[in-house]
Specification:
single chain, 415 residues, mainly alpha, 3 strands, 62% helix
């Protein structure tokens, strides 16, 4: 290759190098511009979601705690007594937890022996229940990740209280049975209603109390005892809003912690973590809007949100955290409505019994004004020669005449 050819070759290579550099520079500039636009867009999405949260629905868990737990005198706080009771009870478990009704006489003797051997535990529980502001505090002092160990210790104590109440019903002691149900409801009310884990625990405690209330209504109660029962039941109106607000607060705290981790810094730099955070907040916003609706409207609305979540969870941008954080609205609603239906049928049954005690007769078709949370219509009533049943149609929305497999029902013997 002569000198002219070499110069021409070098010139061509230089021109190609310049073109390549220009192409590379333009490509990098375009990528940078796209990245900047995406980061700005995702940051804007996140800011819009944050801006949609009013001051009354703060993301700060501390605000929720301060609102729910106003300061009370240390001498009035029952938490220490609950903890002492849990420590004394230890790993014990009531036979009621495993026995299946109807109970044999042998099971009743086991229950009686179990109650008799835990006088100290009952003394601590009863002292706690007598406090004017009986509640079971959760320790939020270590930040947003609360210690729920104390809440979990409520379950065996609640089972123990239910055992004593069941024995009072079995032995036909109306006053002890009524007091037992009141104690169970106070125990349920003492459990926090946020975040989601304590809230679901609270629903479980309320369900246990309502189940015992049905047995108590089989006894010959006075008008005063029925009024006390009704007041206790009416105080139990579970609402998932605070639990969802707190879960949203927890989710934002999780995103804040994850953004500083080595493995997720690239996602944060690309703006994908902001996108995921915005998606997560949008999911909570949708559920909060649904749970603010009247009961019957929630069923269809929550299904739409769940469908939206399932159809978008795998789409770009990736949902690195939100798919692990956003709860199932349908699951929460099932638990919530089943307890609200139990509250409704129990309230209606108590009112029916109060009318019977006052008038001395049970109407063939009592007027029931309590509404079914599943339909928004009055609860339904059927009777036989020996008992009557008040029921909600349940989650399948079908009228099965009080069949407990599908309806939410309470049955009371006719006295």
């Amino acid at each position: 290759m002569n000198e002219d050819e070499q110069r021409g070759h070098r010139g061509a290579m230089t021109r190609w190098s310049v073109r390549l550099a220009i192409i590379l520079g333009v490509t990098l500039a375009l990528c940078g511009a796209v990245l900047l636009v995406c980061r700005t867009y995702y940051a804007g999405q996140l800011q819009d979601e944050l801006d949609s949260i009013g001051p009354e629905h703060s993301l700060a868990i501390a605000d929720l705690v301060a609102d729910y737990y106003p300061p009370i005198a240390a001498t009035d706080n029952a938490a220490a007594l609950w903890l002492d009771a849990a420590a004394v009870y230890g790993d014990a478990e009531s036979p009621l937890a495993t026995a299946e009704p109807p109970y044999s006489e042998a099971v009743w003797e086991q229950l009686r022996a179990h109650v008799a051997t835990h006088d100290q535990v009952f003394d601590l529980i009863d002292r706690a229940l007598q406090r004017p502001d009986c509640r079971f505090d959760v320790d939020y002092s270590n930040g947003i990740m609360a210690d729920f160990t104390a809440v979990l210790s409520l379950r065996p104590l609640t089972q123990l209280l239910a055992t004593r109440t069941a024995l009072a019903v079995h032995d036909r002691k109306p006053e002890e049975a009524t007091a037992g149900v009141e104690g169970l409801f106070r125990c349920a009310a003492s459990c926090p209603d946020f975040p989601l884990v304590p809230f679901l625990s609270r629903l479980a405690f309320q369900r246990a109390a309502l189940q015992q209330a049905e047995g108590v209504l089989a006894l010959d109660l006075t008008a005063s005892q029925l009024q006390r029962l009704e007041s206790a039941v009416r105080s139990q109106q579970p609402n998932a809003m605070r639990a969802l607000y707190a879960e949203r607060a927890l989710s934002s705290a999780h995103f804040g912690e994850v953004a500083t981790m080595d493995g997720t810094r690239l996602l944060a730099w690309l703006g994908l973590l902001d996108a995921d955070h915005a998606y997560c907040l949008a999911g909570f916003r949708s559920y909060l809007e649904v749970f603010d609706l009247p009961d019957p409207e929630r069923i269809a609305a929550v299904a739409k949100v769940d469908d939206w979540q399932m159809s978008t969870i795998g789409a770009f941008p990736p949902k690195a955290l939100s798919n692990l954080i956003i709860p199932s609205g349908a699951m929460i609603l099932r638990s919530l409505l089943s307890v609200r239906a139990l509250v409704a049928v129990t309230t209606a049954a108590i009112q029916t019994e109060r009318t019977r005690v006052v008038t001395g007769v049970l109407a063939e078709q009592p007027v029931i004004e309590v509404l079914d949370p599943y339909t928004g219509e009055p609860l339904r009533f059927v009777r036989t020669s020996s008992h009557y049943t008040i029921y909600s149609v349940g989650a399948d929305l079908g009228d099965d005449l009080g069949d407990r497999n599908t309806d939410v029902a309470i049955t009371v013997p006719i006295k």
